[in-house]
Amino acid sequence: MTGGLSGPAIKPIAVHLVSRVYRGIARSTGTPIIGMGGIQFWQDAVEFILAGASAVAVGTALFVDPSTPNKICEGLDEYLQKIGMDRLKDLVGTLELPEEMPPPKTAYV
Questions:
Q1: Which of 55, 34, 43 is nearest to 83 (CA)?
Q2: Domains of the chain
Q3: Three-class SS of 11-27
Q4: Percent helix, strand and coil across the chain, each rounded to 5?
Q5: pLDDT tens-digit profile of 84-103?
Q6: SS3 for 73-101, per residue?
Q7: What CA–CA distance (Å, rounded) separates 59 from 10?
Q8: End-to-end CA distance of the chain
Q9: 72 and 42 in contact (C-beta within 8 Å)?
Q10: d(CA 26, CA 10)
Q11: Which phi and psi angles does 84 have, rounded to 5°?
Q12: Furthest-apart CA pair in the chain: how many Å?
């Protein structure tokens, strides 16, 4: 039997991959992405949405607190009000990334 990573352990990787898929495919084709992996708080959901997720899924956090989805929705609503936006959809993929930089040159000894 083998185990895997879930929850907060994979969040940075999951957000990165959502961003890559959004910029590489989903943005131009209008394909929705469901972001998942480490979403426990509304701030986590915002990170995925800014990266390009149209929706988010909550998994491991439900073991800690079954009301997590309700709390996330309430937090997202308050966040939208605070920043003066009406629709969460307007945040999808709005993360600004620095220009692509060339990979560093590696010196082989």
A1: 43
A2: 7-91 (3.40.50.12600)
A3: HHHHHHHHHHHHHHHHH
A4: 50, 5, 40
A5: 999 999 999 999 877 655 55
A6: HHHHHHHHHHHCCCCHHHHCCCCCCCCCC
A7: 12
A8: 41
A9: yes
A10: 21
A11: 75, 35
A12: 56
For the entire predicted model, the pTM comes to 0.84
Contacts for 13 with CB less than 8 Å, ≥ 6 apart: 37
Q: Which tokens sit at 93?
A: 């993929």
- The pLDDT of residue 97 is 79
Rounded Cα distance between 105 and 10, Å, is 29
Nearest to 75 by CA among 52, 55, 45: 45
56: tokens are 């988010």
Distances (CA, A) of 15 to 57, 60, 73, 87: 13, 16, 19, 21
Give me the residues of the chain with pLDDT under 70, please: 1-3, 99-109
